[in-house]
Amino acid sequence: MSDIIHDPQARRHRVVGTALAVTVYLFLLAPFLVTIPMAFGPANSLTFPPANYSFDLFRMFFRSPGWLNPLFESLKVAGAVMAVAMFAGAPAGYWIARHEFAGKGLLTGLIMSPLVVPTIVAALGLYFYFSYLRIDATTLSIVLGHLMVSLPYVIVMVLAGVNKLDRNLEFGAELMGAGPLRMFVTVVIPQLIPTLVSAALFAFLLSFDEVIISWFLAGPDTITLPVKMYTDLIFEVSPVIAAVSALLTAISLLVTIAAIVLRKGAPVDT
Amino acid sequence: MDKDLIALSPWGTGPLGLSPTERSRLTPSPFEPPGYPMTPTSSLRAQAIFMSPATLIAAGIVLPPLLFVFYTSVHGLALSPVSFSAVLTSTLFRQTLSTTLYIAGLSSLLSLFLGFVVALHLARQPARRRGFLMILVLLPFWTNVLVKTFAFMIILGRDGLINSLLSWIFQTKIELPLVLNLFGVLVGMTSYLVPLVVLPILASLLAIDRAIYRAAAIMGARPARIFWTVTIPMSLPGVFAGLLSAFVLSLGAFVIPALLGGPRDAMLSNLVDFYNREVLNWPMASAIGVLLLGMAFFFAAPLALWRRRKI
Fold it and tell me: How far apart are CA B274 and CA B270, in angstroms?
């Protein structure tokens, strides 16, 4: 930074800064440093570090219907949310980025509002609304609820992706006579693939990890994995949660790495 | 380059006789990229195809729940403010409100400090190493809050990691109450918010022109002085954005106070859940929800306005 003037204090400042930063990194990573070793610990105790290592907890998880059913429910919901959010969000994000139209501010404000609305308010409202429609406690209701909070994220990511594209290619396609739809499919989508893949992954993850809305909407047959985890953490903390945590962390890690790798082509500015 | 583009484009002049750039300057949009003007919609049919799924979701899923909450809070068409006055006079609500503001404020400030340290470190790394270190920040950001909460139960618990470590060091039984109290909530909230604060501050720091640092150094400024007169002032937009978004997000915290806090550390979200699930008083739950929504919008508004002005 100050390559020109050598200040004996600069080095000391940098060392202090790095030491503080490493402490914060450790604080941020502490949850993983604890849960992942515990996931391979014994099945009957919740102490750290574990006395011995095994796959017992994972075996317990994959043999218990009490955990497997919520896992499948979550996978089902997250898959559906991902598909619908991409189907609705990708074209909308593109159109919002490129076009001016009547009522744009109002419509985008409404679609984006779940980014600011506290999730508990959304959850309470969805609970009233779906009870009124008599679809409460169904998988459909959870999918729709998660869609409400996942869609804005997909649109924001697509917007950012479209804003980085070279618009001249679209002008070119348009001048050559391509209609908006054809241009979107043949010119925009191929350039947007990294953005679309990471948006889809994040939509999946957002739904897969969502707690509050599921907590309000889940019925006895539609318990999602986070709801099962939350109730367990309230009533009796079982060691299996360490294994579940390790699995959830692995999924988050995959998505994070995929997102970073996919962004590498694009200039990083946010 | 910009002008060539407009000259080339079929939308060179807009319907109002203004060029798209002029129009976009008059009506700035938060989503507009610099340099590329927006196009007025030429085909309604195309717009219907592109926008209708999202519009259907906005009209069918996003709006009704909010209307239902408002509707329930005023007892339907009776439009009665009974629940609001009941909420505002209830000691439980007032206590929870002050706890909420206190926890949200304190944990946002804590995460601002920790997040700034990390952002500063990241900004000084070469791009490749920054990419790796970003994983360390983004992984907690995208990890289920229940995983982090569970981990902090283990770390901070009565026989948890910290207490066993202290007991081993001092060779006596130490059982510091670190969880199910304010401390536990603050630790959990801070861990949850730091990554959120890092990203905008890092963006601000990376946007600082290196030449300014060099100029300050040539003029004889020491690192400490450069830090206080260049780095801090120029990172304020990111600090402001990070602090406000952390505060707005923490106002609605639910899982962390429920699991890491004691009964006295319940926040407004937990009160909504309590009225909805235990008391079955839906107008009360809705009234609290409306107040919480109002607070979130009140604190998010400066952020939205500021983002709009930036472009």
Answer: 6
Report yes or no: B311 at the A interface, CB cutoff 8 Å: no
pTM for the whole structure: 0.87
A265 pLDDT more than 70:
no
Q: What is the pLDDT of residues A142-193, one digit of tens each?
A: 999 999 999 999 999 999 899 888 888 888 888 888 888 888 999 999 999 9
Q: Is A161 exposed, middle or buried (0-12, 13-18, 19+ CB in 10 A)?
A: buried
Looking at B9-126, list the stretches that DSSP marks H as alpha helix, in order from N- to C-terminal side: 20-26, 44-57, 63-73, 82-89, 91-123
The minimal CB distance from A257 to the residues B118, B135, B153 is found for: B135
Contact B236, B306 (CB under 8 A): no
CA–CA gap between residue A270 and residue B46 (Å, rounded) = 31
Query: Within the 56-75 window of chain B, which residues sit less than 8 Å (CB to CB) from chain A?
Result: 56-58, 61-69, 72
- Among B39, B49, B133, the residue with its CB nearest the CB of A181 is B49
- DSSP character for A187? I
Counting Cα atoms < 13 Å in the Cβ hemisphere of B30 gives 13
Length of chain B: 311
Written as six digits, the tokens of A5 are 């003037």
Query: Phi and psi at residue B278, in whole multiples of 5°?
Result: -95, -50
pLDDT band at A17 (very low <50, low <70, confident <90, very high): confident
CB A92 within 8 A of CB B53: yes
Rounded Cα–Cα distance for residues A154 and A88 (Å): 9
Q: Among all chains, which residue has been given the structure tokens 């400090």?
A: B113
pLDDT tens string B14-60: 222 233 333 343 333 444 454 556 666 667 888 889 999 999 999 99
Picking from A180, A242, A252, the nearest residue to B142 by CB comes out as: A252
> Quick one: average pLDDT of B134-147?
90
Whole-angstrom distance, CA of residue A232 vs CA of residue B82: 37
Task: List beta partners, residue A270.
Answer: none
Amino acid at the residue A67: W
Rounded CA-CA distance B254/B273 in Å is 9
- What's the token pair of residue B75? 């007892």
For residue B218, the chain A residues in CB contact (below 8 A) are 4-5
